[in-house]
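Ticket 4471: requesting a sanity check on a complex prediction with alpha-D-galactopyranose. Repro inputs:
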Amino acid sequence: MSDFLAEEQENRKIRRKVYQADTLKTVCKSYYTRNTEMKERKDSILQNLHFLHGGDYNPDQWLQRPDILKRDIELMKEAHINCASVGIFAWASLEPEEGVYTFDWLTKVIDSLYQNGIYTVLATPSGARPAWMAQKYPEVLRTSDRLVKNQFGGRHNHCFTSPIYRELTGKIDRELARRYGHHPGVILWHISNEFGGACYCPLCQAAFRKWLRKKYGTLKQLNEAWWTSFWSHTFTDWEQIKPPMPNGETEIHGLNLDWKRFVTDQTLDFFNNEKEAVKSGNPDIPVTTNMMGSYEGLNYFKFKNAVDVVSWDSYPSWHNPDMGDVKTAAQNAFHHDLMRSLKRRPFLMMESTPSTTNWMPVSKLKRPGMHMLASMQAVALGSNSVQYFQWRQSRGGCEKFHGAVVDHYGGSDTRVFRDVKEVGERLEKLGGTGLTETCVKPQAAILFDWENRWAVEDAKGPRNAGIHYFETVLKIHKAFWDLGIPVDIADMECDLSGYRLVVAPMLYLCRAGIQEKLSNFVKNGGTLIGTYWSGVVDENDLCYLGGTPGGMMDLFGLRSEEIDALYDGETNRMVFRRNWTGKKEFGISELCELVHCSGAETLAVYGSDFYRGSPALTVNHYGKGLAYYAAARTEASFARDLIREISGRLGLKRSVETELPGGVAASRRDGEKGSFVFLQNFNPYAVSVKIPGKAKDAENGETLLGSILLAPYQTRIFRK
Ligand code: GLA
Ligand code: ZN
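Returned structure tokens:
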């Protein structure tokens, strides 16, 4: 390890760069040229390392099989794997009894990976704990929302508050950090695994009350914020307050909201406890935690400053006939966009399946070509890695049939292995082009706010049969995706000033000064598209008095008086006064708001019902910008037509200036070294895409003129 120590000093700055300047190339070249052993390996894959290509590796399940561990390294090299995420659930192998550490196997694994040109993403083991711990300290186990204490078992089954669990986690993390924090093979900390869920034990309840005291100061303020005079729910003692529970309080929306905020904060606090522990070994190794896209339970935006690099686990259900691949692709694109937007930097796709996902209702095989297509989709949208769950399939346990690069057969002569290898080869070649130093740089953003989502979905009314906030966000995102216009996802705390177009659907709950932020955005020349059911409640879920959209009536130049909800199957129509977006009418369903314009111009009206002829779409000139207001939920083609029209007027850049055929996605990564445009065909048939002028294929140098033919599931990358 001492040789490594010397090298480490120099590596520090460069390693940090990987995640800041996003240049894996620099860091790896530097390792390559300074490590003698590496220098001698002419065929080293490190020469070409830019993207990370690897995945979850669980050697702790195979310690009794040195032959298999040896074979793993050979196969990894064959598959062009350059990193492995190690130790994710290895606590029992690292600390078989309290204070007894057995790290030898891990040292051997990390050394041997490194000597073979494979980096380690080193995990902390807190995602699952050993049985001895649950036996000795039952406190570490989670308590359900019906106050049932969980038994030992499963994973992620722990209390985030328990001082004992935090202490034990901190200890093992420090041991890991002390031993490997300076190992040149270790490039990233993977903190825990997919944080999620909540614990309702007395410790968590007490922590929640403490959190509330800090937030509100007095019970009087809390009672006011939660409007507890309703149904005589006034609290007179802090000890009376419990988290929302199915057999207890569920009807105080302010409480529900604060509990979710607390769960995010407490999880983040637990994460920070681990972060501090691993940073004690070497503060320069970046940390991440693998997120789950739009997982409802945690507000990931709160993690954006805590992680050095965002990473996430991507498991779309490809080939699901109910969804179709095109819709699946668009949804997956939303999640990639969301994850990239947290830091507005390249991210890592920490997990994806190389073939099937065994926890889904149907474990469908990825059709030939889909593995490459899905991997390239991540890259196209800003990922600097393609990583898998998992490298080698477990022999037992509940994931023994989950897709893996190496299956129970154990050889490389499989379809899945060849698919993975092909991705590895392609990433290596692409790495040389400077692609990892670029990022998607949208001029438009969709406002998607976790707290708003919690509140709007918790509210009783106006449509308990389906308020469809998240689906609405996805629908708008798909409009951008269909058009090939790059888009970020922002929450209410984000800075919006750099965008030219912001689409903010259903801003039901307003917080973080969003009204002022949006007003300034439009005043300064931005274009905003808002919708029905906006500005309804403040951050405590208390209704705005004196008219809605609260704080935005001037901005939109209107006041909303009522909102009508339609049964499934019922419709209305949005009728344009003139052919504004090329089409005169669009279908309306589910929600229709009745608004009075006070300055806004009416662009379209309702076609039927007692509010026939009243405004359904308006626009208001506000400062130097425009604020549109869609008063009703419209069919998907309306969002697309509206965004096409507005972005055309604004001159927003499309990834490629063309109308894309259905099922074809265009994405673009820009940087100092130029622009890369990705065209991806999610159809199982060939299509041809018109392109303006000339382009050069980034991979084979071919000059492309006029149009590009895309084979089924093909991705082509070209430079502008
Ligand atoms: C998650 C987990 C992994 C594994 C995979 C299976 O992403 O992080 O440990 O269980 O799911 O798809
Ligand atoms: Zn707890």
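Notes from triage: The pocket of alpha-D-galactopyranose (ligand 1) is lined by residues 193-194, 290, 313, 315, 351, 357, 359, 389, 399, 402 (CB under 6 Å). Leaving this open until the requester confirms.
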